[in-house]
Specification:
This protein is of the alpha/beta class and 449 residues long. It is 37% helix and 22% strand.
Length: 449
């Protein structure tokens, strides 16, 4: 293994991989990222991810301070409420969330594409596009070489798999690691936010995140995404001057086509979908969602009808199974490449960011000579594996994330639905329980133990 500052190869320019790259660059550690997509604007749509305290703390630790400020400025309007509603748009529960006055101790709405542009800022010489990873070799001198489909190679002291659920690195490194089908499918759509589509939503739904417990085991979620720029990409006139200046001077703006929208996701057990749903796109896929929701409120059905067909995306939900401990080496993994989780607790991206900050911390110690590179990797994995797979288990145990959930059974499903609605209804109406629910929401999404 090379002495001195290591050179780190990261496979995958997703949220976790780029956060790690930013942190290493900031620490003066040599890093290169290899991404299979051809350009920085390819491959990701503008769907929402919720960044809680854990994610924001990791970003603040890894990003240069001025870029962290850009991250805050590019977030969509923070949700004011967490709602539970029926398919008929009746409120079951509504919880008031914390204001976004604190830079990290809150829930932030982030568009995937926008966050990607933030994380790519200043990394033009670090990120290499159109590089499809095929295999790696661990060499006798302690280095590791990555091979790519175009015949090129890259050699470094550590290879980090940040290439997602279907990680090619994991497939070679931990061939016994299992990612299985959770048994549910999502259809994600984006609806342009206009004066008309806005008025289709009750005020608390328009200003919050809303979970739809529909009859018959059809679930949904609505996220309203409202940014500081308009449909032409120009800064809105009511934006504070400090944020406006940041956005005007941010070079990533010209690569981001994210605009105000309503994220509308329908999901259920895979048995409810056509067998070829994963091959469907556009209007055909939107029609599948409309067929599943034919008894929903007309306003919700109109939102689906007005969704952008090009944004419609089928997602087969997957989950990792725990992996027995392995011996640390010059290859390691982060995020979905090792602990894919369902969206049940909404912490997949936050956990990947937590991984990135932790690994960066360990590699800084190795670069400073406080421990060997192998010890840094071992210490990272000793912490990451337990909390990562705990999050996997939590997400799978959330109502409706497993295709075998009682919610989807013909008879007991009705009782499960009534039970879920009853729980949220009572919790929201008892002040002590409502406060505990909100506090637990932030504690979980900010937990570091």
């Amino acid at each position: 293994m090379a002495s001195g500052t290591p050179h780190v190869l990261i496979i995958g320019a997703g949220t976790g991989g780029l956060c790690l790259a930013q942190g290493l660059r900031r620490a003066g550690i040599s890093v290169a990222v290899y991404e299979r997509y051809r350009t920085r604007g390819e491959g990701l749509l503008g769907y929402r991810i919720g960044i809680g305290p854990t994610g924001s703390k990791a970003l603040r630790e890894c990003l240069p301070p001025e870029l962290f400020d850009v991250y805050l400025a590019t977030c969509a309007r923070s949700p004011r409420y967490f709602n539970v509603i029926t398919q008929r748009l009746r409120h079951t529960a509504s919880f008031t969330l914390r204001p976004d006055t604190d830079p990290v101790e809150t829930e932030r709405s982030v568009a995937r594409m926008t966050l990607r542009q933030v994380l790519l800022t200043g990394m033009e010489d670090v990120v290499h596009f159109d590089k499809t990873f095929t295999r790696y070799e661990q060499r006798d001198d302690g280095t590791v070489t990555a091979h790519f489909a175009d015949g090129s190679t890259a050699t470094g002291d550590l290879l980090v798999a940040a290439d997602g659920t279907h990680s090619a690195v994991r497939h070679q490194y931990l061939p016994h690691a299992v990612v299985r089908d959770a048994g549910t499918i999502n259809i994600a759509t984006r609806v342009p936010l206009t004066a008309h589509t806005r008025q289709l939503l009750p005020e608390r739904v328009e200003k919050g995140i809303s979970l739809i417990f529909g009859a018959g085991g059809i679930m949904g979620v609505l996220h309203v995404m409202e940014f500081k720029w308009d449909r032409d990409g120009e800064i809105k006139p009511d934006v504070a001057e400090a944020d406006a200046a940041l956005l005007r001077n941010w070079p990533g703006r010209r690569h981001d086509n994210t605009r105000d929208n309503i994220n509308f996701i329908i999901w259920s057990t895979a048995r409810r979908f056509p067998p070829d749903v994963m091959q469907r796109r556009g209007e055909d896929l939107v029609q599948v969602a409309r067929n599943l929701t034919r008894h929903w409120h007309p306003n919700l059905r109109e939102l689906l009808a007005r969704s952008d067909p090009g944004s419609a995306l089928p997602i087969r939900v997957a989950t990792s199974e725990p992996v027995p401990a392995w011996k640390a080496s010059t290859v390691t993994l982060l995020g979905d490449a090792i602990h894919t989780m369902t969206p049940g607790r909404g912490v997949g991206a936050n956990t990947a960011l937590r991984d990135a900050a932790l690994l960066c911390r360990q590699l800084r110690q190795a670069a400073a000579g406080d421990k060997t590179l192998l010890q840094a990797v071992a210490d990272y994995e000793a912490a990451m594996v337990p909390y990562g797979f705990a999050r996997v288990a939590d997400s799978l145990n959330r109502s409706g994330t497993s295709g075998d959930d009682r919610m989807y059974k013909p008879v007991v499903g009705r009782l499960a639905l009534l039970g879920a609605r009853g729980y949220f209804g009572v919790t929201s109406r008892v002040p002590r329980l409502a406060r505990k629910f909100v506090n637990d929401f932030y504690t979980y999404r900010g937990e570091e133990d």
